């Protein structure tokens, strides 16, 4: 008995499973709830009764991968359609129906719709939102479905809750959207007018247009369009009562917002006239002024006629005179009457317009096509200023101080060139001081061996001279000439013109200068001076390589073969390198004194070759220690600890790049070129650097290196 029940239970379970399988053939499940969808065709793919086929084709290929949801793909996108509907009016004889225009908005993100009607003034209808935004079902027999974007097209009708809307057009974005999804658009339909509204407008115009229409004085449009726009003219008035003072200058301003004019007077200094705010207060300016005075109430905008007087209760009856009988018509100046050269009548005063500003010119150029704005010269040319005769220098004080005493009663201190001081003053390691080695040009055997340093300060063009102190020479060295500006020799002392002083361009290697009777020959300069002059070659022609090279080419253009032979004889080993002395002697012989020593050195520095072995190691170390000392760098113990950590083999050697990276990580205050040069001095043939010796040499606390003088050797060319 129990087995039979089990078998029956199994059969029942199988039947239920078959039923579910059968229902799955005709239903789809959503959240485990069976749903019937109309888009699923019947057996063999044939459409079921009442089922329509949706258009799924498009001009664009299908995307690869999963497509985004509609609320992301169509976010902030709205389809807008122009439509209208007819509304019956059964309670009025004047109209049987109304045509009401509206807009239909469709939101593809959630298939919702909204219908709005533009508000028409004094329509008497409740306008605005006719159908709020929500999903709207299709009309029967498809009320179980909602409107989608495929149900819309131009020149078609849709039914929303029993009301038929005729779609006549849509905007450009909607057209492009519908064509992209494969809908072929119909041509736009015409927009019908409401017959009752058209008839009512015609009757309203006929009733509001009397036989004699009233004048309207509407100035709001002109004010809103031209507010803040003012035409400006420079004018002149020849006052007959003031012939001695000349014409009186005026400024006329025309306001485009209300066609008014005001005039101000420009009073010169010490004119003797009272200062008044306006020569003419702002108002409309009549053309035929002055005129006989009018009685009060004569000039009005309207004319009123008393018809019946005051019959009862002191009430009068008035009507407006539309014919303007006896009205006074006056003409006022407009912007078309104002132009350069025109004479306007300002209450009996003839004023000539002489010039105008740029805005006024642009206004007349656009509105009236005027292009000639030649001003009228009304001012007499001022007399030439008398030439100031400066008396000659009397010898007291400086020339600048004496010149200021002649320019004003109150003597002022001469102004310094602070711009030059700020631009060329010492900044960091840039001293802006040009130093030259010099010697005296003299026949005295004692003075021939004296050596001097001439310093030129670019901040104020001053010069200071110092002398080397040599032992057992009998001459005390030190300051030879106090820092000051030095005049060039050969100038007259007592003269009116300012004297010429030595400039930076007057000092160069090979130049002869005279400082207060002492003749100096500049024989050399420091490296900073050469670099500064070469960087600012536009200010120093003696250091301009391009100018010097072109000058040399012009001298040696016809002697090219001879020069090649000379160089080949000088260089028998064909190394393409010759000594500087040989190069200098050749340039002197070719130029025949046409090149200064500084120009020859500029060529040699440009084409020169220096071996790294020529650079003094002690001099480099002294410069490096000086920079480390100025920046208070004392982290030598931390450096040696980092080097020992990177030295895995504990041999005391590390590669060049590793040492350079470690120094960069510690932000060693040394220039890159100086650091690289020092590292190359301490590396061996295998590019390994002895970091212990290098750090010992840089340690300015324990191993201080003093710089010493060394004879300069000219570079090879």
Automatic annotation (TrEMBL):
Primary residence: cytoplasm
GO terms of biological process kind: regulation of neuron projection development
Ranges where the DM10 domain occurs: 75-182, 227-368, 430-537
Location of this chain's protein in the cell: Cytoplasm, Cytoskeleton, Cilium axoneme
SUPFAM superfamilies for this protein: EF-hand
GO CC terms of this entry: axoneme; microtubule
Keywords carried by this UniProt record: Cell projection, Cytoplasm, Cytoskeleton, Repeat
Highest taxon above the source species: Eukaryota
PROSITE patterns named among the record's database cross-references: DM10
Function, as annotated: Microtubule inner protein (MIP) part of the dynein-decorated doublet microtubules (DMTs) in cilia axoneme, which is required for motile cilia beating.
Protein name, per record: EF-hand domain-containing family member C2
Species this protein is from: Ficedula albicollis (Collared flycatcher)
Species lineage: Eukaryota, Metazoa, Chordata, Craniata, Vertebrata
């Amino acid at each position: 008995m129990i087995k039979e029940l089990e078998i029956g239970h199994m059969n029942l379970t199988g039947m239920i499973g078959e039923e579910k399988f059968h229902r799955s053939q005709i239903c789809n499940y959503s959240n485990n709830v069976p749903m019937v969808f109309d888009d699923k065709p019947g057996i063999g793919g044939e459409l079921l009764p009442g089922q329509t086929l949706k258009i799924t084709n498009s001009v664009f290929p299908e995307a690869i991968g999963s497509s985004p949801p509609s609320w992301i793909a169509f976010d902030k996108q709205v389809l807008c359609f122009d439509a209208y509907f007819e509304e019956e009016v059964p309670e009025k004889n004047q109209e049987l129906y109304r045509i009401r225009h509206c807009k239909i908005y469709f939101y593809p993100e959630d298939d919702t719709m909204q219908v709005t009607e533009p508000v028409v003034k004094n329509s008497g209808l409740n306008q605005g939102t006719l159908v709020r935004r929500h999903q709207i079902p299709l009309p029967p027999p498809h009320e179980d479905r909602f409107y989608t974007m495929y149900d819309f097209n131009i020149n078609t009708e849709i039914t929303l809750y029993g009301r038929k809307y005729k779609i006549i057009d849509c905007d450009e974005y909607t057209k492009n959207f519908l064509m992209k999804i494969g809908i072929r658009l119909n041509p736009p339909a015409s927009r019908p007018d409401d017959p009752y509204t058209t008839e009512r407008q015609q009757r309203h115009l006929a009733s509001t247009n009397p036989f004699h229409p009233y004048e309207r004085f509407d100035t709001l449009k002109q004010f809103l369009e031209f507010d803040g726009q003012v035409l400006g003219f420079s004018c002149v008035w020849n006052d007959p009562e003031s012939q001695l003072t000349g014409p009186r200058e005026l400024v006329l301003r025309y306001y485009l917002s209300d066609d008014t004019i005001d005039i101000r007077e420009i009073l010169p200094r010490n004119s003797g006239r009272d200062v008044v705010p306006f020569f003419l207060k702002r108002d409309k300016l009549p053309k035929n002024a002055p005129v006989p005075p009018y009685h009060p109430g004569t000039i009005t905008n309207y004319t009123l006629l008393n018809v019946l007087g005051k019959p009862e209760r002191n009430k009068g009856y008035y009507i407006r005179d539309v014919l303007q009988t006896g009205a006074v018509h006056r003409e006022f100046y407009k912007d078309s009457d104002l132009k350069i050269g025109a004479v306007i009548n300002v209450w009996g005063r003839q004023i000539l317009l002489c010039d105008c500003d740029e805005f006024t010119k642009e206004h007349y150029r656009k509105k009236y096509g005027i292009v000639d704005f030649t001003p009228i010269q009304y001012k007499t040319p001022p007399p030439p200023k008398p030439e100031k005769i400066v008396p000659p220098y009397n010898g007291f004080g400086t020339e600048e101080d004496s010149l200021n005493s002649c320019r004003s009663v109150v003597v002022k201190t001469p102004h310094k060139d602070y711009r030059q001081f700020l631009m060329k003053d010492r900044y960091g390691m840039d001293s802006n001081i040009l130093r030259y080695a010099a010697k005296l040009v003299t026949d005295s055997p004692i003075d021939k061996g004296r050596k001097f340093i001439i310093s030129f300060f670019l901040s104020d063009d001053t010069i200071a001279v110092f002398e080397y102190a040599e032992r057992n020479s009998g001459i005390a060295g030190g300051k030879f000439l106090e820092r000051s500006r030095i005049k060039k020799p050969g100038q007259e002392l007592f003269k009116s013109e300012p004297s010429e002083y030595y400039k930076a361009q007057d000092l160069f290697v090979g130049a002869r200068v005279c400082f207060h009777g002492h003749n100096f020959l500049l024989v050399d300069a420091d490296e900073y001076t050469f670099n500064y002059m070469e960087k600012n070659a536009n200010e120093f022609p003696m250091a301009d390589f391009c100018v010097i090279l072109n000058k040399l080419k012009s001298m040696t253009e016809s002697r090219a073969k001879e020069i090649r032979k000379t160089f080949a004889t000088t260089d028998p080993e064909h190394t393409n390198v010759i000594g500087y002395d040989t190069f200098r002697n050749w340039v002197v012989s070719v130029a025949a004194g046409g090149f200064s020593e500084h120009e020859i050195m500029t060529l040699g520095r440009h084409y020169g070759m220096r071996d790294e072995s020529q650079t003094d190691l002690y001099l480099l170390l002294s410069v490096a220690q000086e920079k480390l000392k100025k920046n208070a760098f004392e982290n030598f113990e931390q450096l040696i600890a980092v080097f020992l950590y990177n030295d895995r083999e504990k041999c005391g050697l590390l590669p060049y790049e590793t040492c350079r990276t470690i120094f960069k990580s510690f932000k060693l205050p040394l220039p890159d070129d100086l650091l690289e040069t020092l590292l190359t001095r301490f590396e061996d043939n295998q590019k390994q650097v002895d970091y212990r010796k290098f750090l010992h040499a840089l340690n300015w606390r324990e191993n201080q290196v003093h710089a010493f003088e060394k004879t300069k050797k000219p570079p090879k060319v």
